[in-house]
Amino acid sequence: MSEKVLSQKEIDELFVRFSEQPIQEEAVDLLSMEELDTISEVGNISMGSAATTLSQLLNNPVKIGYPTTIVCYQDEVFKSFLTPYMIIEVQFKKGLNGFNVLVISEQEVAAIADIMMGGNGDVQQLVQINEMEMSASTEAMNQMIGSTATAMSELFGIGIDISPPKATMVEDLEKANHNPLPTDKPVVVARFEITIGDLIRTTFMQITNVDAAREQANFLMMQAGIVGDSETGVKEPSISAPVRKKADSQLPNLASALSLPVDASFSLATSRTTVEELARLQVGDEMEITTPQDQVEIMVNGVAIGKGRLQKNGENNSVKVTQLYDKGLFKHKE
Predict the structure, then answer these.
(1) Would you give the DSSP letter of residue 155?
(2) How many CA atoms lie within 13 A of 263 on its CB side?
(3) What pLDDT is recorded for position 154?
(4) Which fold has domain 264-324?
């Protein structure tokens, strides 16, 4: 079973272009870097929850990396696609303002649909997506967005209601509308590297309108004590007001996120085999692994955050943390 790397060179180039200045010049008065960092944390938490949901749906491990986040006009994002893609959009009806959008390519739609309908997701030659495949992949995306809304509700401590997700398949790129979202302002684009089992390594993009992103960031920063009521005017996330940084400092752990439950798991190793070898597997057979016997990868909500070493702790087993990756709240230490 071959691993499929579904890359988009033009999307890569878009994010490289913004690597030194993630916020487009026209948007610097709309969002600060500290607010953008906070929104990245929101995306990390909410998409971590979505990864768990997708893993259960596809019966495959799903890993979602820490997002790369930029602020630009939406036409720059949609012009970067050279293959058909699907847009899944929801509007916030209660608790938060604005919209939340996922964008995935046609290949990803086909692979996810194939797995949901009993296949292995190894779509070698893509044909036109039929109505059943569209329905299956849309349902997967709907449940992912539902999970992100639930995680955001717990993070903000408020009830959040969203409209039914609207899925649009964009196949004719020459006639495609490069401004499909209901805003003429820049948007916040978070890019997530996603791995589904040994089948797919690709990217999802999550898009939020800049006003809603600023509201969410201000609210969480106020809760974390970075800014106060008088500076933001924000009493709950449905009120927007621009804010400037108090000082040049690292973003601390978000206070409201500390009580959010997460699932931690410890992966010893992965091993590639064939269906024939599995069919012949018997009790007493040995399967080789390349990872050192006592080393495990630490996963939180499907996201790899570090490595550890198995050890005996009295009558119980434990994992001693030996490395934390440099991702958001998790700083690299060895």
Answers:
(1) H
(2) 13
(3) 84
(4) Surface presentation of antigens (SPOA) (2.30.330)
- Say how far apart CA 227 and CA 138 lie, in whole Å: 39
**CA–CA gap between residue 137 and residue 204 (Å, rounded):** 14
Non-local (6+) Cβ contacts of 105 within 8 A are 6, 8, 81, 83, 84, 85, 86, 202
**Residue 85 parent element (H or E):** strand 85-94
Q: Across the 334 residues of the chain, what is the mean pLDDT of every consecutive 10-residue run?
A: 45 64 73 86 87 86 87 85 82 84 82 80 69 81 84 83 85 83 88 82 84 85 62 43 36 46 75 77 80 77 79 82 65 41
Q: Residue 36 forms beta bridges with which residues?
A: none
Contact 309, 291 (CB under 8 A): no
Count of Cβ atoms closer than 10 Å to residue 7 Cβ: 12
CB distance 31 to 71 below 8 Å: yes
Q: Hey, where are the domains in the chain?
A: 4-244, 264-324
Which stretches within 79-130 are classed as H helix?
106-116
The first and second tokens of residue 237, run together, are 């996330």
Most distant pair of Cα atoms in the chain: their distance: 68
> Which residues have CB under 8 Å from 12's CB, separation 6+?
none
For the chain, the C-alpha Rg in angstroms (whole number) is 21
Q: What angle do CA 186, 187, 190 make, to 5 degrees?
A: 145
DSSP labels, 220-240: HHHHTTSS-HHHH--SSTT--
Task: Calculate the CA dihedral of residues 142, 143, 147, 148 and round it to 10 degrees.
Answer: -30
Buried b (16+ CB within 10 A) or exposed e, 259-289: eeeeeeeeeeeeeeeeeeeeeeeeeeeeeee
Q: Find the helix or strand (DSSP H, E) in which 152 lies.
A: helix 131-156
- In this structure, the number of other CB atoms found within 10 A of the CB of residue 82 comes to 12
Look at domain 4-244 and name its CATH class. Answer: alpha beta
